[in-house]
Here is the input.
Amino acid sequence: MIAAPLAASPPAKARFNAPYDRWSPLQRLRHFHERNHVAFFPVPDQEQVQRARIDAVLDNRFTFNNETHDLPPGFDWHVNPSDDLEWQIMLHKFYFATGLGMAHQETGDEAYLAKWIELTESWIETVQPDLLAGRSMFNDPLFVAVEGRRIQNWISAYYHFVATNRHRLPPAAFHETLLASIEAQVAFLCGHLAPSRNHRTLELWAVFMAAVVFPEFQAAKRWQRLALEGLHQNILEDLLPDGVQCELSTHYHHIVLRNYLSFRRLAQQNNIRVMPAVDEALREALEFAIHVHKPDGTIPALSDADVDSHLDLIALGAELYDDDELAYVASRGKKGRAPATHLARFADSGYVTMRSGWGERGEAYQDERYLVFDCGPIGAGNHGHLDLLNIEVAAFGRSLIVDPGRYTYREPREDSGEINWRARFRGTAYHNTVTVDGKNQARYVRAGKARRCKIKGPHPDHELRCCASHARLDVVHGIARSHEYDAVHERIIMFVDRTYWLVVDRLTSPSEHHYDLRSISASRLSSRSASPAAGSITGYRAPTCSWSMSVPIAPVSSPASFRGPMARSAQHRSSASRSRRARRYSQPSSIPTQVPAIRQSSACDRGRPSAPIGDLYPALTSSMSRSDIGGGHTGICSAFRRMGTISLSTARA
Here is the structure.
């Protein structure tokens, strides 16, 4: 059953292969609805396709980034009702189109079909001419991927409204207009691909999707060759040898991986060959995904990221590769086999994860203890944060110490007098590390024609001195050397009996500085606070400073929303006990630097060659007794004192 025309469509005609080019619009519509030689699937954004949001779209009420606007009938796509450009970008990406298709498929209500046609025709009539003429309204390179995302969402909507529709089909004339627009947009995209990283990945995936779903187009084979070669190259270049996406954002890692796995799935369903090296790289990327997910099923918001869950992505990987460990993590321990590694080091990105277990030893999966440590580079592109030696901690289904993530990409004009939240959230003070004289770890200033804040000058040097695992103790030791000041920051994290952490920070310098230990407690967060400055746990002026912070584990109250400017407490508090204190030392205490080369645990480096590490770890484990571990923080400090390597305060707050 085909719907009557709801609006007049502009004349347009796609270029089809024979014999489709000789068919009538109605014949082509029926062909695309009834064909069975092409397999494909929709790729919905679960947040954007929620039924309440889709029903609101019927009344032109759109919600993006927690901001809702009611648009008038026949609204102008060029007008942004928000102060945030990203809101308008989200509108043009058409995530709601997939949701309209899903709702129509489930209910048969033609209001969803009518709204899809109305919004799609309106966009084609008013925006597409400028786009194809090179007059895109989004000239900022941060947003070039809008074209690729819209193509993906239009094809996902097509899956519901045409390919698998059990109800009334759209008018044949509109179907012709839609196909002509998709062809024109893909052709435009092929000539304007981003040069690298996540935008290029998204765009190539959109081109590949269009080529496979619409082989009837004359250009489909050429599109497929271009996209297949480009995706192979992008996967091998953008995924580091340790599997982490080169921008080093937990969010973009999973967004890119979702595109890659969707590409892999579509290729598999349509018998398109993929290079073996691609599968190897994707398996490594999935390995990082399972380790970085917290026991509650969400990811930490490291660098430009939001708190989210990508367990469905891991489940897709488990299905593609028939992997029991992926299935175990995707189901949070309900099926499959638990990973064997509790301490995982990702050498190229600098990430280390520590966890007490995977729920395989009688403890509930979500109650396991978890810590992620960042001791790596800032990352490619402009999504990295100045957060070297940053940590995030979770236990008993709760996040205890958190990274507040990106919050926004919007930057106000330099002369506006507004707070630049984008710059604040990328800065060192908004992370769980140490600031020196209140400075960022690298020069971060406004630059370029757009006067956006950019990282200028050398990035901080990073060194993961030690990452080792023992039956009683896991230890990581990272070092940060900034070019903005002469103080060197060392952080040692000890996971004792997989029960609690002892974090030791040591700063040494030939000159005097003011040091602040920053810690952001999940239990103190608010979603829209007017007072978002990060709290300083301790502030000391000294050439050299050392302190310890115990992170014991106990259930805490449920954290508030992670989105919005985050409230930072002046002092980290939780229901668990802790100890921390800073003392001034006239002479720097030393950790040996001339050390023999020894191998790290294979559980730590996941089978890769190990770099030389300091003798702190073997000396500590040989010096420690069972009573030291049983004595908790005080006992561990006693072992350190017997070694004579570092001085620690054991006074409890």
About this structure: The domain at 343-601 is CATH 2.70.98 (Beta-galactosidase; Chain A, domain 5). The chain has 19 helices and 18 strands. Residues 2-11, 526-537, 554-615, 643-653 have pLDDT under 50 and may be disordered. The first helix runs from residue 25 to 34.
